[in-house]
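FAQ

Q: What does a record look like?
A: Structure on top, sequence underneath. For example:
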């Protein structure tokens, strides 16, 4: 199969979907890899590195789309790319369709096969192996950003997360005890903050109680608990996930009147529409905004700020799946691997992931019927 590696063109996105080491593995299995010129520059990989690994470097994205059976990205294709996508072409990337109706409807017109990193599961249908590494990065970054934007120079409360001798630390509320929330809580606790982490799964809470440091308290999530702790918090990290669907709005604007002025909201769920009522996507060049005295950080591609770490982690996770698709074709690969089948979001003009169909009241077609 001919596999295309595209340069990211979304604002401040410096990751690349495959490292030169990944190219070498693809070549060893008999596949041809086309890499758009300078695709790896933001992650520290030169065109010469890709050529040494066996890739063919091409000048423009149109050439990659025109020649490739499967194209790979990190973020969703941008509007300038829609017309380049060919019917039947496999597009393997993070899509987050449920948060973007325009993208969903435009991609239905392409007739392509959209396989979304974020809904691929483990081989038994459990876990999200392609989302996990970026969730780890985003979770750890969330605590860093909460600390940074709590500084008065950024409009925050002017409080040091860990405090100092004789001065109380900041209070950080983490909503969601999955991969993002766990990593965010660990980092915030490591900085010395007083941390609460909320989840609705008792088994998960028991696990968190065992692994978290003493300054992190796992609690059962409920609307009343969120309201109570939001009023105490100096920073709130939104880390909820409903796989492939829109995130629920757990912090409302009405709650702001009972919150501390300058409290920082970090919405890691922004890719899925955000879990705060007032969230809207921001960029690394303009990351924050203020609503009623509350600071919002809603950067939609947080791991793009640390591309060397993120690219390595992402390729480690995606390469085995990309290799399966390239070696067997998408239909056979999805028949044999239920985890990959769960990644099918769109086949032609058919929506094959229920959460996406429900988000926009579109017809749903089970993935099995397309195999």
């Amino acid at each position: 199969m001919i596999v295309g590696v595209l340069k990211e063109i979304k604002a401040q996105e410096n990751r690349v979907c495959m490292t030169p080491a990944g190219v070498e593995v693809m070549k060893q299995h008999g596949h041809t890899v086309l890499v758009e010129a300078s695709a790896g520059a933001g992650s520290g990989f030169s065109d010469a590195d890709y050529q040494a690994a066996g890739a063919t470097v091409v000048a423009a994205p149109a050439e990659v789309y025109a020649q490739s059976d499967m194209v790979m990205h990190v973020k969703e294709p941008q509007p300038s790319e829609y017309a380049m996508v060919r019917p039947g072409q496999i597009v393997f990337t993070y899509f987050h369709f449920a948060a973007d109706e325009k993208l969903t409807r435009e991609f239905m017109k392409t007739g392509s096969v959209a396989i979304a990193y974020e809904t691929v599961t483990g081989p038994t249908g459990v876990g999200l192996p392609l989302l996990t590494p970026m969730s780890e990065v985003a979770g750890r970054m969330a605590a860093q950003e909460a600390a940074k934007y709590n500084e008065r120079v950024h409009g925050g409360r002017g409080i040091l997360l860990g405090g100092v001798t004789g001065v109380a630390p900041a209070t950080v509320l983490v909503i969601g005890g999955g991969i993002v929330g766990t990593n965010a809580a660990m980092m915030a606790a490591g900085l010395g903050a007083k941390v609460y982490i909320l989840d609705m799964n008792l088994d998960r809470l028991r696990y968190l109680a065992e692994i978290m440091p003493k300054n992190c308290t796992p609690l059962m999530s409920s609307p009343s608990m969120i309201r109570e702790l939001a009023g105490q918090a100096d920073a709130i990290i939104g880390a909820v996930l409903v796989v492939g669907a829109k995130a629920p709005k757990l912090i409302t604007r009405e709650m702001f009147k009972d919150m501390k002025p300058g409290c920082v909201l970090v919405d890691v769920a922004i890719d899925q529409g955000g879990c705060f009522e007032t969230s809207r996507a921001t960029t690394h060049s303009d990351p924050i905004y203020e609503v009623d005295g509350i600071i919002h950080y809603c950067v939609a591609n947080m791991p793009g700020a640390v591309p060397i770490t993120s690219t390595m982690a992402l390729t480690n996770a995606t390469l085995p799946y990309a290799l399966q698709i390239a070696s067997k074709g998408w239909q056979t690969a999805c028949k044999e691997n239920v985890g990959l089948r769960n990644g099918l979001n769109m086949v032609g003009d058919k929506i094959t992931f229920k959460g996406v169909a429900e988000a926009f009241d579109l017809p749903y077609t089970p993935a099995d019927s397309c195999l």
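Q: Is there anything notable about this one?
A: The chain has a mean pLDDT of 96.
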